[in-house]
Amino acid sequence: MTTTTSEELTAPDAIITVRISGKHTDGAYELFEVDAPRGEGAPPHRTPWPKCYYVLHGRMAVLLDGELHDLSPGDAIAIPPNAPHTFTVHTPSAQFLAFAVGDAMGAFFRDLSAHGLEALPRHGVTL
């Protein structure tokens, strides 16, 4: 068993804590804890990696491929690669886990935290 230390990253729409990084899974998967305030997240965008969200607390809506999904604690949603998506938090805040296959999402979050939106094209993220 490998234990990990938490790494906190800042995105325009949330604080992201790396719970399991790709370096601890040989790049197979990553797990993040996302703390987002009330309001809209990033504009609808596409990422080249698959991921899923699991809501821990708060209420949020995920717009995925033009369909709105209301999520509460215990709810989860799978987001396929390159599917247009975004989220909106309806409570004062929401906390959810984001699980991603591979290690691309962590590299993107680190670049986004350090360099802002100029990181998007470097990781194949499109608006």
From TrEMBL:
InterPro entries: Cupin_2 (IPR013096), QDO-like (IPR053146), RmlC-like_jellyroll (IPR014710), RmlC_Cupin_sf (IPR011051). Coiled coil: none annotated. It comes from the Bacteria. Residues 35-91 form the Cupin type-2 domain. This is Cupin domain-containing protein. The lineage of its organism: Bacteria, Bacillati, Actinomycetota, Actinomycetes, Pseudonocardiales.
